[in-house]
Amino acid sequence: MSTPSQAEIRRRIAEAETVVVKVGSSSLTRPDGHLDAGRLNALVAALAETHRLGARVVLVSSGAIAAGFGPLGFDARPTDVATQQAAAAVGQGLLMAQYEAAFARFGVHAGQILITAEDTIRATQYRNVQRTLGRLLDLGVVPIVNENDSLASNEIRFGDNDRLSALVANLVRADALVLLTDVDGLYTAPPSEPGARRIGYVPNVVDALGEVKVGGTGSKVGTGGMVTKLEAARVAAVSGIPAVLTSASNAGPALMGDPVGTAFAPVKHRGSTRRLWIGFAADPRGTIIVDAGAARAVRGGRASLLAAGALEVRGAFSAGDPVWIDADDGTHLARGLAGYDSEEVEQMLGRNTAQLKRILGDEYTHPLVHRDNLVLV
Ligand SMILES: Nc1ncnc2c1ncn2[C@@H]1O[C@H](COP(=O)(O)OP(=O)(O)O)[C@@H](O)[C@H]1O
Ligand SMILES: N[C@@H](CCC(=O)OP(=O)(O)O)C(=O)O
Fold first, then answer.
1. Residues 62, 146: contact at Cβ < 8 Å?
2. Residue 46: half-sphere exposure toward Cβ, Cα within 13 Å
3. CA atoms of 151 and 12, how far apart (whole Å)
4. Mean pLDDT along residues 287-310
5. How far is 320 from 315, CA to CA, in rounded Å?
6. Dihedral sign of CA atoms 230, 232, 234, 240 in order
7. Which single residue of 169, 178, 282, 347 has CA 20 to 30 Å from 365?
8. Beta strand pairing status for 142-147 and 56-61?
9. Which helix (H) or strand (E) holds 163?
């Protein structure tokens, strides 16, 4: 794929028929844990204008925890998971109430979608989210997506909405991703460092990852900092989706294709959305180590992983969880969704289909990882 110019990328963003916009906690709330109505309303005005011009708009909004701790009487973002989950339960309602009121001024409905990684990794749930988002967009609604913080279990959660937004962009087959934060773009180093310069255009985010010095969050309410935003830009880029990263106050110009913030070019054409989800949505819970024959078959890209080629299982996982498929020298070959629980895989290792049928029964004759649920790394 030849490298497009920055002007071309900005034009694609301006002309996007479907756009996913992600906004961070620090752009919606004050440090004291209350919503900043002025900034929220300004963001909604920019989104409503894009909607008026005919685009399908999905908003991925953080801020549930940040908007919930102030009203609950805490003076800082709680650090323990249970209190964060409680704060999110309060804050998410407050956040949606503000969004609904703000969008109503433009005659637009907002619809809440709360996602957990656990739900959406399974094929049926994934399609369910995809269908609901599609229908909302068909109805002219602006879906407002967040992680279901109050219910998400700590081991398997997105944790930051940057990565979630890139996956949602993929899910709705967006034409552009806009990441809004509290800094006006990607800098060569954390902006507090002397000499840090804003980068206007990143033609290849994979190359840029090695050249930029990134730090964690600069605010008391944000989570991932620039690391997770670059990861989101990378996921978008490998999904064929151009992205722009800028401050929330630049939302309008960014959506219009003005040269604000940092634009990222896609590095690939669009691929299968569900496979990408398997590849990025959740961290693997365990590993299946395979022999050389199975490694060759998996690398070939069209084979399922059969028990006969599996040597060892590590970690504890359930059927449907993401797992690594590793060669016996430890190199990662693929990620996939396990067809069986780890204890079951243990019993199945090295056995061919006839043996599995005879020893364990018919229900153990399926692949450990089906090829539709497997993505090479
Ligand atoms: N190279 C960099 N360029 C720009 N910002 C950076 C960089 N490294 C670290 N940062 C920090 O990342 C912060 C944005 O991340 P975060 O606070 O998680 O925002 P949000 O709440 O919007 O997700 C910025 O305020 C900035 O301090
Ligand atoms: N889902 C969490 C936000 C997690 C998150 O990514 O926050 P941020 O770094 O501000 O985008 C919430 O709504 O509080």
1. yes
2. 25
3. 37
4. 93
5. 14
6. negative
7. 282
8. parallel
9. helix 161-171
CA neighbours within 13 Å on the CB side: how many for 274?
17
Q: Residue 291: pLDDT band by 50, 70, 90 thresholds? A: very high
- Check: CB of residue 87 under 8 Å from CB of residue 78: yes
Q: Look up residue 15 and give its two tokens.
A: 């002309």
Q: Which residue's alpha carbon is nearest to atom 17 within ligand 1? A: 217
ipTM: 0.94
Mean pLDDT of 186-200: 91
What residues are in contact with ligand 2 under a 6 Å CB criterion?
24-26, 62-66, 88, 146-147, 149, 160-161, 222-224
Q: For residue 66, how far is its CA from the centre of ligand 1 (angstroms)?
A: 16
66 CB contacts (<8 Å, ≥6 apart)?
25, 26, 28, 29, 33, 77, 91, 221
Q: What are phi and psi of 275, to 5 degrees?
A: -60, -40
DSSP state of 35: B
CA of 161 to the centre of ligand 2 (A): 6
Q: Is 229 annotated to bind ligand?
A: yes
Separation of alpha carbons 196 and 191, rounded Å: 6
Q: 330: annotated binding-site residue?
A: no
Give which of 309, 365, 317 is closest to 333, Cα–Cα: 309
Element containing residue 113 per DSSP (H, E):
strand 110-115
State if residue 33 touches ligand 1 by the CB under 6 angstroms criterion.
Answer: no
User: What is the per-residue DSSP string for 328-367?
Assistant: TTS-EEEEEE-SS-HHHHHHHTT--HHHHHHHT-GGG-S-
Tell whether 149 is in a known binding site: yes
Phi and psi, residue 325, nearest 5°: -115, 115
On whether the CB atoms of residues 204 and 1 are closer than 8 A, the answer is no
| Residues whose CB falls within 8 Å of the CB of residue 257, separated by 6 or more in sequence, listed in order | 10, 11, 13, 14, 15
> Does residue 270 surpass a pLDDT of 80?
no
| Bridge partners, 19 (sequence order) | 57, 176
| 199 touches 212 (CB < 8 A) | yes
DSSP letters spanning 270-300: ---HHHHHHHHSS--SEEEEE-HHHHHHHHT
pLDDT of residue 156: 60
Q: Among 144, 134, 132, 57, which Cα is nearest to 101's? A: 144
